[in-house]
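Researcher: I'm comparing several assemblies side by side, and this is the next one on my list. It has 682 residues spread over two chains. Same procedure as the others: predict the full complex and return the structure.
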Amino acid sequence: MRIGLIGYGGVGKAFTKLIVDKSSMLKEEGLNIEIVYIINSKGGVYNPKGIGYNKLLAFSNGGKSIIEDYDENKKITPDFMLERKDIDLMIELTSTNKETGEPALSYILKALENKIHVVTGNKGPIIQRYKKLEKMAGENGVHLGIGCTCGGALPSVNGGVIEMAGSEISSIEGVFNGTTNYILKEMEDTGCTYDIALKKAKDFGISEANPSFDVEGWDTAFKLLILTNVIMKEEKNLSDIKVEGITNLTPYDIENALKEGKRYKLIGRTSRVEKELNMLVKLEKVDKEHPFYNVDGKNKAVRYISDTLGELTLIGGASGTTAATASILRDIIYISRVARV
Amino acid sequence: MRIGLIGYGGVGKAFTKLIVDKSSMLKEEGLNIEIVYIINSKGGVYNPKGIGYNKLLAFSNGGKSIIEDYDENKKITPDFMLERKDIDLMIELTSTNKETGEPALSYILKALENKIHVVTGNKGPIIQRYKKLEKMAGENGVHLGIGCTCGGALPSVNGGVIEMAGSEISSIEGVFNGTTNYILKEMEDTGCTYDIALKKAKDFGISEANPSFDVEGWDTAFKLLILTNVIMKEEKNLSDIKVEGITNLTPYDIENALKEGKRYKLIGRTSRVEKELNMLVKLEKVDKEHPFYNVDGKNKAVRYISDTLGELTLIGGASGTTAATASILRDIIYISRVARV
């Protein structure tokens, strides 16, 4: 399988390392991965015969910016790659724009049009145009892998699309955000205020410098939106979700919940009531009988409720770059099995 | 997709009903199922153009034994079907023989040899000869769906094969048996003895007339064996598993566990320690932080631990004929997607 990788940050670099580490497993799987392009915003590497693993590793580990390495005097860009079309699959890991989905959206569309499979970890284009992308993939007989956009290692998309196949899903709910999980656990364990727990999350690098995206519930909302549109085949927008964060939670609230034997979780939920779809992100108290009771720290979870296959809860999804990368590889293996690339 | 169904008990009958109930969903999926054969031990129905849904429903609901309905004067048997080879997929639901896997094993082998996909709910052949069957499927470019053999609606096989793809799994553990789950919960809730709880399970039709298979841990062991051989690519036998049941548990044990905030679960576990594989079925006490704490009654669960994708716990899997049937349909949909039948 000939792969072009665009976007070469932490996950991209970890991917090139992962396929070296996993080379014997990939061989057993019958999957021969050749990375033909690595492209970032500064330039790219291209070797039509496959970029050597040693060179890959040097790039991955050395932290050097990518150099151009192609005999013609051309800049290696995504457009260059998508014009040559000499790959089977594009890994798209460029930076996210959730308003427009660009430039990833255009790259993905162009790849699919050219019968190139795509695996992406980018929420932007999926939020903006999933239905169009999926249609384009179907018309061109290729696949679009999006597992990494919704919880990384937690197979939340597959959980709905593959594991609940043939059933009608009436509810999707989950604990999708690691930062809020960390903050809530810290408040429970130490009795501290929200601000102190947030500071700790920042100090430990768990929270981003600007945490509002996580703590105000938007990250959860985006993941819920993707799962809803993909699994329930809807075309909802962010404005269809009632979003609430965790910023107003007090130690007093936490203490009262613990007295009741309950824990707060930031839950995203889409439920079908009659013909209406109800979508919200909300702090809820759950007791020890609830499947999300133990979902804290780095764990995430999703629960589906269906007609014929009953309920299914998936809990897990290690955090971090390795896990995100491994979820990209999971999608690639799936595509190689189904499309026999 | 032309389907031949052999074994026409509860699940087989429910299947013919399910595909009528799900006809609009199947159409959306692009999956056109025609049932061409229905065969049981007494005879069979065959219509090369597809057995009409009304006739199917009459058979399913009417409880009539299957009649022969073919213009030539031949008995409709699995061998007859496998000689004509005019199907894409065989659903194999004949009765289980765990010692030999027969006659299902021969039917499945013959189908795969003839490039016919197979979906089975039958543990016997999978326990006996999975590796050979899988190899045969691979060589003939067809698929073998076995989701129904390990927990029905709980996607335990897919959980390992698809959702952990690309990672190395060091541990498989699960709560796989409904009857023991019911008995343990009854003992916890009422403080009754094992014998009283077992009687209740029999009275409610939860336990089989001969419950030893469940309560002595063998059903759990069989499922663990299948998951281990399929997901870890091993060739283990039942004799490799140290099996312990729940028959010696006393109300005193239960009471003590509850005092510690713990619950007993019958857990099957395969774990890799260095190069050794350790397999056991054992009653264990779990506390409320354990992912299996809430797995009781009809629920089942499985947890995988891996190198790159972390931990994944799947909880769910409604019991009963509908759920088992829906898990057969899930495998068929998967095959139709990957093989484009």
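Model: For your comparison table: The longest strand of chain B covers residues 262-273.
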